[in-house]
Amino acid sequence: MKKNIAKRALSASILLLIILPFFVTTNLFQKEGKIIGFIFYICLSLLALYEILKHTKLNAVSITLLLFLSLVVWFFPSNLFFSTDTNYIFNNTKGLKIDKLREIMYESLFVKDAILNIVCVQFIVIPVIVMLIYSSNIKKYFNFKEMIIEYIIVTSMLLYIPIFLKILFLFNITNLYFLAILFAIPVIVDTSGYFGGMLLGHKFIKRKFSPRISPKKTWEGAIISYILGFICVYLLFYLGHQLKKEQITFFTKIPQLIIGMIIIPMLSIVGDLMFSLIKRIFKIKDYSNLIPGHGGIMDRFDSTSLVAIGVSIILLI
């Protein structure tokens, strides 16, 4: 066990050393830095998607088409590049205030496209084209149910993963502290759940937390991780507001704080279970061996992804 923990810690440290320069470059440098960051996040998105798509029954050509299709999320709505209200983020070196982040996040995901004049282009185009691809590959599946399950997973991930990383890119531009807390909450929840389960697991509640999806998780570990996550959301997301330090202030409204404290730790736990369920369906242990001791990108960023999306929705309240 000690060797496994040491291996995980070492590989996590190496991963951090690799990606940290991209985070800093994206936040601190001028237009070139923002473009480098944008490309970095797109590449990360494509790699994470490939790790999932390679476990489907689709051929290499179909997988390649799907990877290109995911770019729709990154470039539409095109307001992020052509709107006078949002394209300045590529030239911004001082970061964004939280109110401006809220406006840009909404505009870069949900408004009518500046060129096509269509709302939510990605949510229309991707499901339709994926269905066409699966229709042409229907003979590869044992039955219709198997194909539909895989279609739902693939369509969801083609939207979910690029949206998550696009949100992360916007947080990265805004403030490195905001980016850090998106990673901190899942790490705190996951670590406290692991050690809480190891020390107290099944001592009070004999039933497993999620026996079919993640048999090793215990109710004691989940409860401890939720409580610590609840406290940390207050400390990391709202304490700056009370201390009147704008640079570390995320939630500025009481309703946001209350919803965040209740929901965010839960999302961290659910994010882990959601990607574990997909692995169960594909009958795999990890999405890849990219990060020794951790697996693939979404093995490591599973909880972070749902936390980032949940935090963004709360921010729009």
Which residues sit in consecutive blocks of at least 5 with pLDDT less than 50?
A: none
**Overall mean pLDDT score?**
89
- Number of strand segments: 2
Number of helices: 14
What distance lies between the first and last C-alpha atoms, to the nearest angstrom? 43 Å
Helix content: 55-70%
Can you list the strand order of the major beta sheet?
A: 1-2
- Tell me what portion of residues adopts beta-strand conformation: under 5%
Largest sheet: 2 strands, antiparallel
Our Rg estimate from Cα atoms comes to: 20 Å
- How many domains, in number, for the residues? 2
Structural class: mainly alpha
Shape: globular
Report the order of strands and helices.
HHHHHHHHHEEHHHHH
Give a brief rundown of this model:
This protein folds into two domains: 169 residues, no CATH class; 142 residues, no CATH class. 69% of the residues lie in helices and 3% in strands. The chain contains 14 helices and two strands; from the N terminus they run H-H-H-H-H-H-H-H-H-E-E-H-H-H-H-H.
Please specify the SSE layout and strand pairing.
Elements: H1 2-28, H2 31-53, H3 60-69, H4 71-75, H5 79-82, H6 98-107, H7 121-135, H8 144-174, H9 176-200, E1 208-210, E2 214-218, H10 219-237, H11 239-242, H12 254-282, H13 297-300, H14 302-315
Antiparallel strand pairs: 1-2
How does this model look, in words?
Belongs to the CDS family. GO terms for molecular function: phosphatidate cytidylyltransferase activity. Pathway: Phospholipid metabolism; CDP-diacylglycerol biosynthesis; CDP-diacylglycerol from sn-glycerol 3-phosphate: step 3/3; Lipid metabolism. With 317 residues, the protein is mainly alpha-helical. The protein folds into two domains: 1-169, no CATH class; 175-316, no CATH class. 69% of the residues lie in helices and 3% in strands. The protein contains 14 helices and two strands, in the order H-H-H-H-H-H-H-H-H-E-E-H-H-H-H-H. Strands 1-2 form a two-stranded antiparallel sheet. Strand 1 (208-210) and strand 2 form a beta hairpin. Helix 1 (2-28) runs antiparallel to helix 2 (31-53) and helix 1 (2-28) packs across helix 8. It is globular. The termini are far apart.
